[in-house]
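Whether sequence alone determines local backbone shape is best considered at the level of individual chains. When preparing material for the folding task, we compiled for one chain both its residues and its backbone structure tokens. No coordinates are needed to read the tokens, only the vocabulary itself. For completeness, the protein is quoted in full, as a sequence line and a line of structure tokens:
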Amino acid sequence: MEYRLLGKSGLKVPVLSFGTGTFGGGGDFWRAWGTSDVTEATRLVDLCMDAGVTLFDTADVYSRGLSEEILGKAIEGRRNKLLISTKTTFRMSDDPTDVGSSRFRVLRSCEASLRRLNTDHIDIYTMHGFDAQTPVEETLRALDDLVSAGKVRYLACSNFSGWHLMKSLAASDKHGWARYVGQQVYYNLMGRELEWELIPLGLDQGVGTLVWGPLGNGKLTGKIRRGQPVPEGTRIAQTGGEGTQIPEDVMYNIIDAVEAVAQETGKSMSQVAINWLLQRPTISTVIIGARNEQQLKENLGAVGWTLTPEQIAKLDKASQLPLNYPYWHQAGFECNPLPVKRY
């Protein structure tokens, strides 16, 4: 397993990490993701560890804490051999204070996650979304206190806009507080908006990228085919999925390109889609999820080989999004850190 630095921190993470949103299955939404209990979760963790996947990602909101609890039990006795990433910000209960990134919420949420995970520290603590009602200084000071107390090792954010992240980094630098060294983001061949602003920002500021949704909620696995109904029992069939809304013909053109490259390489479509991500700038790790051993073993096969420049170009061409302003105006400028072609 290849390891990469998380941004410009000194933390090395495996290029594949495991997302535990499939643990627990509490409520209709999370049940569609997966329903792994402690026994199955332990088996999946075993397979990950054997393959060198030592970073496990969860969140307090996943099945209202049940995912954290199951992960804590699944890793019992080997905490010092792995890394844990968890998140907070989204609502956990009807309590008016139980949402957001205020100092009160951040400190209380961290303590609750530590208890559920049965650990004394969190390796990567992530703000799951941007709280526009709380000053960034309040959030960052609380996070810095957690780092100083040894309860958190590194900080990351998720689903931030470019100005959200840059404002936060500027505040951390001004006050000498711990800064975000990673951003956990939605990125795949069907959702490439990250390239417009957040990847250039990451290159400039030394923020590593942790990818969620690498398979476009299953659309890049080969389950979705032109002219065929969505298979019953899949997450897309049950929830509709998340992510970029692109025209149907564009979606199928991307799927066709991934399938063509898969045939060339002898790999699965999922493996091709994940390997493409690993060639992109700032990518530290791609978070893979699995509802069973078969899915996990297939995703683990995305590493140990590399797409050719020609195959990457084929996928790039099929998946390039039309640019919004001002990005189309900036495209092609020789000082752009991530040049893209105009249409």
User: Anything to note?
Assistant: Residues 3-246+269-309 form a domain with the TIM Barrel fold (CATH 3.20.20.100).
